[in-house]
Amino acid sequence: MSNGVTIGQAAAFVGVTVKTVRHYHKQGLVEEPDRDSSGYRRYASADLLRLVQVRTLAAAGVPLAEIGPLLDADAAQFAAALAGVERDLTARIEELTARRDTLHRLADGNRALLPDRAVALLERMPGLGFAPEEVAAAREGWVLAKALVPESFDEYLTHLGKALEDPQFVAISLRGSQVATWEPDDPRIPELADTMADHYLANPEQLKILTGMQARTEAATRYRIIAHHGEEQESAAAQVVALIEAKLRAAGIYIPRPDTP
């Protein structure tokens, strides 16, 4: 191979395209060979070896910008650099695996955004008497809660799961779900709010369903977003929540106020 091979042959031998070889030249990874008397660039064995080395490292995930210094490094530097590339690849593999798992979970819309524990509770709610729209509202609220207060969400699910085993809690919750159909001036609003607040005060573990979701930072803002999600400002539901919160505050329970920055 005294005269060398053309760029097309070099690309074919190495297993890349001519465009890729030219890109390697442009990046300074492989020097362009001199032209022969016919005006063609001829690639010698040393050029082909360099192309193979560059292609191999690129295929292994080494960024092109790092390949030049890597090939010019001594053995110790080369080994250290490869170890760094391996760590980066491992992180990328883990990220891609997580994305793949998310795609698999998309077959179930709940599982795409919520952990299995939350999905199990959602699937349990219809059997307790909650209407589909109530289950859907709970799902939306939990998605927000998981995003805004992730450090407390697992504990919240634990408290709620235990509370759903209490027939009185379920009955009060089902009654509260009917508020969505009430008018804002419905006379039943204060009585329902008192009943629900009294129940929480009498059951400290269930009270944690409310207080446990308070974020460590920006508590008021995050609490309001979660607690009042889906409510119209002057609706009966909003009034019930406001009355419950007021009664809990009066009892010494910390609940962020609407006017807290």
Summarize the structure.
This protein is mostly helical. It starts with 6 loop residues before the first helix and ends in an 11-residue tail after the last helix.
Walkthrough of the structure:
This protein has 261 residues and is an all-alpha fold. The chain has 14 helices and no strands. α7 (116-124) runs antiparallel to α8, α10 runs antiparallel to α11 (188-202) and α11 (188-202) packs across α14 (236-250). The longest helix has 31 residues, at 75-105. It is rod-shaped and about 100 Å long. It starts with 6 loop residues before the first helix and ends in an 11-residue tail after the last helix.
What's the structural blueprint in terms of helices and strands?
Elements: H1 7-14, H2 18-26, H3 45-59, H4 64-72, H5 75-105, H6 109-113, H7 116-124, H8 132-148, H9 150-163, H10 167-177, H11 188-202, H12 204-211, H13 219-227, H14 236-250
Helix pairs in contact: 3-4, 7-8, 8-9, 8-13, 9-12, 10-11, 11-14
